[in-house]
Amino acid sequence: MHLLTLLTLPTLLTLLTFTTALPSPHPPKPLPLLIWHGLGDRYDADGLRTVGTLANKVHPGTYIYYIRVDDDGSADRSASFFGNVSAQVAKVCEDIKLDPQLAGSVDDGREGGGGIRVDALGFSQGGQFLRGLVERCEGLSVRSLMTFGSQHNGISEFQVCGSYDFVCKGAVALVKGNAWTEYVQGKVVPAQYYRTVNESTGAASEGYLEGSGFLADVNNERVLKDASYVDKIAALERFVMWVFEEDKTVIPKESGWFAEVNGTDGVVTGLRERAMYKEDWLGLKRLDEKGGLVFKSTPGGHMDLNEEILAEAFGEYFGPETSEKSARLMPQIGLVGDAPVFRDQARLVDESKIYL
After folding, report:
1. Most buried among 24, 26, 130, 315, using CB within 10 Å?
2. Which of 86, 124, 144, 212 is catalytic?
3. Which residues form the domain of 277?
4. Is residue 124 part of a domain?
């Protein structure tokens, strides 16, 4: 006789209630996390790896993929200054599809598995590059996109390089007076998210719309819009945009929220007041209407972060893809000092002015 036949109905119900209340022996697995570094950084930098370690402390078992354009760290750093951003985004798209821990992370019922389902974290220029990846990479599905100090609406000025950073100086020298040439737009990375406006109308300038090699496209600012970009941004569950309140590196800092800043009087036009939102060029309005567009700010200058801010953000927006995630207790994280510096300061002078 089976044991269950000896149990009364009330006993069975009690047991079922008790067992369903027990924690699962196999907790839900966190989504993989893509991390894209900023200008002048490299994918194998100690600081970036510490960020990945922190993400794993918050959500144990998180697979971290550090985005790189080259497996050599020095070459990867150079590629943050020089290269074609569209080609870099395309390469990253192909590279992640070849990673066995990312490929097939979504089971859509097709033979051979489905696509790739991840969270994504971008620092500075890595933020808008990740957004470009979301829009352009077929087979990639991003749940939460989080950016810190990014330039989603471009930059209006190029920053001063460190005294001994000749790679940076070379990039800036190429841009001067040649920003919209095909050569510069295909070779100098910061130039590809440089943005100018018509001083009379405040609208994007003709030179920018015609010559921009990256930003004008991924922002869907041209007359012909790409509907797939709209759908992919609107499909995000969360797009969390952090701005540093005292940021002197990103000009204007409000670019991190897609805001427009008048270069003459400094008047800020927020995203929700802009045509790109009202006409929903990029899907941001649809995302906002479902509660998925999140504006955040933190005190300090560019990339002035500490572990507490990061841990709280990771706990809220990353981790397992389950409705129970928000109810789980976040593990206690030992916070020792500030978060790691995201670039190699030893080789730079006045480094805070060049990392976008």
Report:
1. 130
2. 124
3. 30-153+226-353
4. yes
Q: Identify whether 26 is a catalytic site residue.
A: no
Active-site residue (options: 37, 59, 152, 302): 302
Q: For this structure, is 2 an active site residue? A: no
Instruction: Provide the CATH number for the domain around residue 121.
Output: 3.40.50.1820
d(CA 99, CA 4): 47
Q: Does residue 348 fall inside a structural domain?
A: yes
Tokens (6 digits) for 259: 């805001």
Structure tokens at 149: 């100090």
How many Å separate Cα 265 from the centre of its chain? 30
**Verdict on whether the full-model pTM lies above 0.70:** yes
For residue 345, what pLDDT is reported?
Answer: 32
- Quick check: 53 and 45 in contact, CB under 8 A? no
| Residue 37 annotated to the active site | no
Q: Is residue 209 part of a domain?
A: no
Residues 129-162: pLDDT tens digits?
Answer: 999 999 999 999 999 999 999 999 999 887 667 7
* Amino acid (1-letter code) at residue 191: A
The number of distinct structural domains making up the chain is: 1
What pLDDT does 124 receive?
A: 97
Given 41, 76, 119, 247, the catalytic residue: 247
Does any domain span residue 301?
yes
Stretches where the chain sits below pLDDT 50 are: 1-22, 108-113, 324, 326-356
Two structure tokens written together for 96: 């992640």
Measured distance CA(249)–CA(149) in Å, rounded = 9
